[in-house]
Amino acid sequence: MSTALKQLIKVDGRSALDTSDNRMVEAPFINRDLSLLEFFRRVLNEGLDTSQPLLERLKFHAIFSTNVDEFFMIRVSALKEKLGQRVEVSPDGYSSPELMIKIREMVEEMLLAQMDSLTKDILPALSKNGVAIKTYEQLSKSEKSVGDKYFAEKIFPILTAQAVDPTHPFPYITGGSLNVGVVIKPRLSRRVARAMKNIGDEFFVRLKIPSFVPRFIEVAENSASFIMVEDLITANIKRLMPEATPQSCHLFRITRDGDIDLRENEADDLLETMEENLKQRRYGDVARLEVSHDMPRNMAEYLATSLEIGGDEVYRINGPINAGDFWQIVNL
């Protein structure tokens, strides 16, 4: 590769070709997926830039999260389909397994920077400017009363807990939906307990948070004080499952394959073919599993096994899962 080309391609003041293994320097081409991730890094850097207005930075964080979601839905899912094929090194110097490892390294690095920015910089700055995103423990007595009333009237009636037991298989998980996972030991009658002696007495329960429920619940009339809907649900989890505790609740979210394989020359009716493909998208393979940072290892492994994915497709998020939803704050 020419010296002029190396100097031309720059990312944040450093050469995009400078990698630890010098693979991209030796190869005649730049990998398209890694190049796209570097573009996402530039978007994220706008959100990390403290010289930018606060709400503008928040919007860039939202754009970054949306970009990463679409990247896993399309590009990563396509790469996963190639993993079972014969290993070949592409002109950019990467085989599919090696590229997946590199993608994970870059995504984890950027997610960590995003979570640090949100939790240590942007949210505290929003609070100083009158927009407070609080946990349930941080709410005042009157704010808790408002939140609990909202839960009882607006959220509780539409929640459905799905338990996994010998008669109920692992439920279908919608891509992009926010879920609460909890393992509970229910109170059983003596007769039922004897019947279940050989199959265990703990159950995994999945609770889907409906997408039409606002992510931020206002809990104060005279100030912009909010609680995230998942915090409000876990704080009131005993109303749904008396044996559960807020500490036993952990968030998770999956991203499904959203790539559409459309062959126009084989389609008799293009509109009908598109409609059928769009229906099939919701049943695509799982490309990524995001879990809260405090989820126990055995629960994360159970989810990965049930969703038929490997441990390298599990991402622990030290902050709000799907941080892109924070763009809603801008429109309050």
Work out the strand percent: 15-25%
Strand adjacency order, main sheet = 4-6-5-9-10-11
Unreliable runs: 1-21
Compute the number of strand runs: 11
| Oligomeric organization of the protein chains | single chain
Which structural category fits the helices and strands?
alpha+beta
Task: Note the total helix count.
Answer: 11
Tell me the radius of gyration.
23 Å
Distance between the termini: 51 Å
Largest sheet: 6 strands, mixed
**Principal-axes shape call:** globular
Tell me roughly what share of residues is in helical segments.
40-55%
Mean pLDDT: 83
Q: What is the string of SSEs from the N terminus onward?
A: HEEHHHHEHEEHEEEHHEHEHE
Secondary structure layout:
Blueprint: H1 3-8, E1 10-11, E2 14-15, H2 23-26, H3 32-48, H4 54-82, H5 96-128, E3 131-134, H6 141-155, E4 161-164, E5 178-184, H7 190-195, E6 203-209, E7 216-218, E8 224-228, H8 229-235, H9 237-240, E9 250-256, H10 270-281, E10 286-292, H11 297-306, E11 314-317
Helix pairs in contact: 3-4, 3-5, 4-5
Q: Can you walk through the features of this model?
A:
This protein is an alpha+beta fold. The chain has eleven helices and eleven strands. It has helices at 3-8, 23-26, 32-48, 54-82, 96-128, 141-155, 190-195, 229-235, 237-240, 270-281, 297-306; strands at residues 10-11, 14-15, 131-134, 161-164, 178-184, 203-209, 216-218, 224-228, 250-256, 286-292, 314-317. A six-stranded mixed beta sheet has the order 4-6-5-9-10-11, with helices on both faces. Helix 3 runs parallel beside helix 5. Mean pLDDT is 83; it is low at 1-21.
